């Protein structure tokens, strides 16, 4: 049954999840038709759009923080969420309320008529409707999957950012880095800036930038990280207490410097130092044990995590969904492992601990039905030794709930 304006948010989310036959359907034709009926777009805001394999969340967080520090009203759209759906749609750094979300979903439902929308398409339009209603001056948009055919790409960005390219979602984006790079590059626009957050990018991405006529700002040439210093065109600052990946912070600073808004390096530093994102190399102390938690779930992310470990070794507790490269992810972390422990991830896409152990070629590794059982075993066998928990947003959300409660 179709919910109403009086229905709770949970009922609406269940409804939009059920009405479309596919969880993910890339393409902009259906979406654009609904958007034309839903959105006014008479006073377009300034738009930053961020794509990439990893680092999109931290880069969009940085752009939102910098824009807020410059006195702008900011809508920040990201995905997925850790605990509550509302985390995905934030206005001036605050998740929108259930009531506002229900209003937005009602508006999309009315505008779509008989057009079928996926869950992500439906909620993306809800975010845009909310941002438009609030008359915000800046929209910061995180691409959900790929770029060219992602729902976010119906909005033309004033400045695009592509953080990096790695292997993930090959069943949708293509089998190799060349294919994936081409899809990510689809957010570029002619005569508008695109900021590149890595110097290691496939040639297909650079070729598309040239073909479209976008203005490329390249990592290493226009912005970079030198030791503990972030450098971009027009400034530099000490990375100091900045907790997000420094390459992402440098790309955000470069992108922001190309906007009409301005901050001194000191103001930018304060804004970036204020960012705290749950589940991104998050440290927790609990009952005398040090925990690190990270939502990264592909080999590229695992390589970054391993670099952050440095010389320290951790007991790894990993839970993943079925369509990820579990073997590549685990292999990238293995050198920093005191032990590797697999946990069953509940839900239709979740891997069982046994499946995960077999997929990684580590059938003899400890396997647990729940995260709680895994941590209890580590408490008995290795009290006080550091633990890393990751492999999925779902795994990290469960761990944070467990540690906090």
UniProtKB/TrEMBL annotation:
It comes from the Bacteria. Residues 50-222 form the Mur ligase central domain. Its EC number is 6.3.2.12, 6.3.2.17. GO terms for biological process: folic acid biosynthetic process; tetrahydrofolate biosynthetic process. Transmembrane segments: none annotated. Pathway: Cofactor biosynthesis; tetrahydrofolylpolyglutamate biosynthesis; Cofactor biosynthesis; tetrahydrofolate biosynthesis; 7,8-dihydrofolate from 2-amino-4-hydroxy-6-hydroxymethyl-7,8-dihydropteridine diphosphate and 4-aminobenzoate: step 2/2. Signal peptide: none annotated. It catalyses: (6R)-5,10-methylenetetrahydrofolyl-(gamma-L-Glu)(n) + L-glutamate + ATP = (6R)-5,10-methylenetetrahydrofolyl-(gamma-L-Glu)(n+1) + ADP + phosphate + H(+); 10-formyltetrahydrofolyl-(gamma-L-Glu)(n) + L-glutamate + ATP = 10-formyltetrahydrofolyl-(gamma-L-Glu)(n+1) + ADP + phosphate + H(+); 7,8-dihydropteroate + L-glutamate + ATP = 7,8-dihydrofolate + ADP + phosphate + H(+); (6S)-5,6,7,8-tetrahydrofolyl-(gamma-L-Glu)(n) + L-glutamate + ATP = (6S)-5,6,7,8-tetrahydrofolyl-(gamma-L-Glu)(n+1) + ADP + phosphate + H(+). InterPro entries: Folylpolyglutamate_synth, Mur-like_cat_sf, Mur_ligase_C, Mur_ligase_C_dom_sf, Mur_ligase_cen. Keywords: ATP-binding, Folate biosynthesis, Ligase, Magnesium, Metal-binding, Nucleotide-binding. Pfam families: Mur_ligase_C (PF02875), Mur_ligase_M (PF08245). GO terms for cellular component: cytoplasm. It is an enzyme of class 6 (ligase). GO terms for molecular function: ATP binding; dihydrofolate synthase activity; metal ion binding; tetrahydrofolylpolyglutamate synthase activity. Residues 279-392 form the Mur ligase C-terminal domain. Functions in two distinct reactions of the de novo folate biosynthetic pathway. Catalyzes the addition of a glutamate residue to dihydropteroate (7,8-dihydropteroate or H2Pte) to form dihydrofolate (7,8-dihydrofolate monoglutamate or H2Pte-Glu). Also catalyzes successive additions of L-glutamate to tetrahydrofolate or 10-formyltetrahydrofolate or 5,10-methylenetetrahydrofolate, leading to folylpolyglutamate derivatives. Belongs to the folylpolyglutamate synthase family. This is Dihydrofolate synthase/folylpolyglutamate synthase. The gene is folC.
